[in-house]
Task: structure prediction
Amino acid sequence: MRLWILPVGTFSADETVLDPHCEPGNILFIPVYAYLIETPNGLFLFDTGCSNQCRTNPQGLLGQEFSQLLQPRLAPDDYITAQLAKIGFAPSDIDGVINSHLHFDHGGGNSAFSHHKFLIQRSEWAAVASDPDQYPDSAALDINTGQLHLLDGDYRFDTRLYAVSTPGHTEGHQSLIVELNGGPIVLTGDAVYTQRQFHPDNIGTATNPDQARLSVAHLLHLTETLHARPFFSHDPIQAEKESWRLSPGFYQ
Result:
């Protein structure tokens, strides 16, 4: 087993975008990550970052107001295929894509793998149809439905890789647990943006706040019982503060 944490760009935004309890005026550079996991059963991506359109035409993708609130700072090298190439992999090497959810910054690179196997929660796929405004990037939805595997709750991909249903941020959000030789790592996705929000009373943006609080409590319980390290989706200081190895470094 190996895990690469792939930095796939940043956004410039006021801290209140992540945490509404903060005082406004503190501008942060908010990271975006994707993850590559090598298992005995193949190579899996967890999330795919942003699309090229998010870099070249953010206003056209996100609208003027939102693209000013959350300003993309993306380079061509931040695109998921470029990040994979840096560590010697091509899209054809990937055996499956697992999306935490289908928001533009987590599924924007899906179109590079459109004919691969995708593993998404059934309720997340249903939300695309019922609430399309929440999913503005068509690149995230560019999936061959013949290769789409819809999950219903927790799911084990491998003896040491499994998804945990963590709805709330979106209706079908899922987090991922990777059991490495050095100990388990919990990839929270947007169930938890930052270390400060790893508490049910300080959740991030959520379509269902009550569900989101339960999901955070569940992840807290899992990290404690598994003695796992959590890695948060958009924490601007965690990687440096806790000395996480980002790609091309890896964990095994």
